[in-house]
Amino acid sequence: MLMRTDSFLYRAFHLYYDGFRSMTLGRTLWLIIGIKLFIMFAILKLFFFPNFLHQHAAKGGEAEFVATELTERMTNGETTE
Amino acid sequence: MLTFLTIDPAAVDWARAQFALTAAYHWLFVPLTLGLAIIMAIAETIYYRTGDVFWRRTSQFWQRLFGINFAMGVATGIILEFEFGTNWSNYSWFVGDIFGAPLAIEGIVAFFMESTFVAVMYFGWEKVSKGFHLASTWLTGLGATISAWWILVANSWMQYPVGCEFNPDTMRNEMVSFWEVAFSPYAVDKFLHTVISTWIVGAVFVVAVSAWYLLKRRESERRMALESIKIAAIVGLVASVGAAITGDESAYKVAEVQPMKLAAMEALYNGGNDVSLTGVAWVNPFKQPNYKEEEEAPLRLAVPYGLSILATRSLHGYVPGVNDILKGYTREDGTVEPSAAEKMERGRLAIQAMADYRKAKAEGNEPVAEESKAVLLENFKYFGYGYIRDEAELVPYIPINFWAFRIMVGLGTLFILYFIYILFLWWKKGRKLAPASSSDEETSPYPRWLLIAAIILLPCAYICSESGWLVAEFGRQPWTIQDMLPVGASISDIGSSAVATTFWIFLFLFTTMLVVEINIMLKQIKKGV
To answer: Whole-angstrom Cα distance, residue B282 to residue B303?
Structure first.
């Protein structure tokens, strides 16, 4: 079924479609955004910023892990174990 | 078993430095986005009302520069969330949904509002009605401002944690009042002061770019430059006066909930009644002063009663200094603020009670669990003090707070005078100029020195804006969450070398990005309307 050319969806689609096609400066900016997002998510997040709790605490055991961490960091405190 | 702080102290410093670096770079982009949004929307509003295509071209020109800045700044804030998960995992878990809810709302609002209305703003000139396009331009700015609101709500909660309860079972703070979190007086003040101050950056930017066109005698951009300076000066004056008023209200709130921050901002070692407001004093920028021995900072020039008025709204109000806060003092309303030593003791009681509660719960010993929970809740207000080894840790680095505050206030005052002077010149000479006049004498109502000064003042606007953040964030040290969790307890047990490595990677990446942005921006400015 063909979409009516005066429908909202058709006009919204063409707003983006024509807009992206006619970009000049925008192409450069989108390229930069793409490179930036790639560096952030495919390199930095993947290799340099793991989720510490996911790595060190058992699933569902995050509260216990943090409780232990926060208890052991108490200064001059005697913990009862 | 006697236990001590086991983490690498250098890791705390590197993680803080990395967070500060990321936030400071992120904040280079945000104020221009919010500030320029107002000016381009005003230009388009005039186009909507007059139908003069000159205003459409003017609006489109500033929208192009807005787009460059927006593209460079977009997603730089996400890196802060990476850092939360890796470097600040205890903190991330501890804050629970208090942080999650505002950030989730921010993400959704930012994505939907900005992706929709930015697209209409750039792509919709010939495709939607003038009214709808104008609404989209305003909504683009509003969307960015609403995003800022939620980020500032999260930040304000760290400075003034309200609307939550700590659950020792989940080890998280749980939101009990969304309203209290979202509309705490601290958040409202911070939002108004921060957002209004971004308009100053936008205004100074527009005046600087316009001044460059006038200096270069670019005929095709002359009218746009003159008209843009006029709009920017009005926005800038309203914003800089507004920032002063909201800044005063913010300082009043800081005095109430973060007295140590105010004492550091003022280098006030010993407080009292009838306290004067320091204009200037010699505080060595590279050394923490000996606040225990010195009566006050040397060479101090002060406004009589100024600080008492600012902090208490009373000529004779009591304002505590650093030493008073450490020793304990009585507030204006009669409530007694305990000494640092007592808070540290009660903090250790709270942490021990938390450990006892969890142990008793695991063993099924309900009476001990209930007793421990009562002790925990009774002392939870001072939970974070249990991690403090020496009361000197409770004093932020005074020189940064003192000087950053003065740079912010000094430049803010300069901007008020600057915009008044621009508007005065326009009122005196500019309104008599014919738009098409081309002789050199009549090209601009603004003297050459002022146009050069306008360009020089552009970095000052950023310095002013960043200084505000330095005061806000250095002033609350050692806390990530005021009184609840210090940086030493918030950080993950990670090695400093890993954090240092990513610090240098970020420094390189961000600097590259900034150079690219400035390069594209300058090319676009040279290209003109």
So the answer is: 16
| Among B3, B5, B388, beta carbon nearest to A79 | B3
Mean pLDDT of A40-50: 90
Query: Residue B443 burial (CB < 10 Å; 0-12/13-18/19+)?
Result: middle
Contact B93 A62 (CB under 8 A): yes
Angle, vertex CA B313, rays to CA B309 and CA B316, nearest 5: 60
DSSP state of B176: S
Residue B6 has its nearest CB partner, among A15, A26, A72, at A72
DSSP string, B248-272: HHHHHHHHHH-HHHHHHHHT-SS-B
> Tokens standing for B454?
């306008």
Is residue B127 a part of any domain in this protein? yes
- Longest Cα–Cα distance of chain A, Å, equals 75
Residue in chain A lying closest to B388 (CA)? A75
Convert B369-395 into a string of H (helix), E (strand) and C (coil): HHHHHHHHHHHHHHHHHHHCCCHHHHC
Query: Among B112, B148, B115, B135, which residue's Cα sits nearest to residue B34?
Result: B148
pLDDT tens-digit profile of B109-132?
777 887 789 999 999 998 899 999
SS3 B278: strand
**Residue B170 structure tokens:** 């989940």
User: For residue A8, which residues of chain B lie inside 8 Å, CB to CB?
Assistant: none
Residues 6+ apart with CB under 8 A from B375: B349, B350, B353, B356
Cα B396 from Cα B476, distance rounded (Å): 7
Full residue range of the structural domain in which residue B151 is found: 28-263+397-491
Peptide bond connecting B478 to the previous residue in cis, omega within 30 degrees of 0 = yes
| Cα B20 to Cα B403: distance, rounded to the nearest angstrom | 17
Q: Is B99 a domain residue? A: yes
Q: What is the pLDDT of residues B414-450, one digit of tens each?
A: 999 999 999 999 998 866 665 544 444 456 789 999 9
DSSP state of B284: -
**Cα-Cα end-to-end distance for chain B:** 72
Domains of chain B: total: 1
In a domain, B527, yes or no: no
> Average pLDDT of chain B?
92
Q: Is the pLDDT of residue B340 over 50?
A: yes
